[in-house]
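quick one before i forget lol
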Amino acid sequence: MSRSIMIIEDDIELRKICRHALEKVGYEVIDTSDGAWALEQMKHTMPDAILLDLLMPHVNGQMILDELDNYPNRDQVKIILLTAHPNYRAKISTDQIDLFLTKPVQVGELRDKVRELLGD
């Protein structure tokens, strides 16, 4: 069974690029721009990793991180935070995320970091 990754990102082009890059190396990818939908899905099935945009409308990345802290099996999920604003790194609790990537994300770096984080 392949590992699953959920991409929560409001930029549709970036979602497509990340999805393609990760599917190409065998990951099962679910993507959405809707943080509330993502949280609802994760109540039932938790992915192996989450690529999470920090600044999104309605339910933003910090809200998702805070809510995920209440989910069972949260400690088994690797979280990669994506943002175009590197100065937000200091505002995020390091125990809530496993990796911080600054946009624009390089496809090769993304694949390498995900593989490394998941031990693949």
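fyi Residues 12-24 form the longest helix (13 residues).
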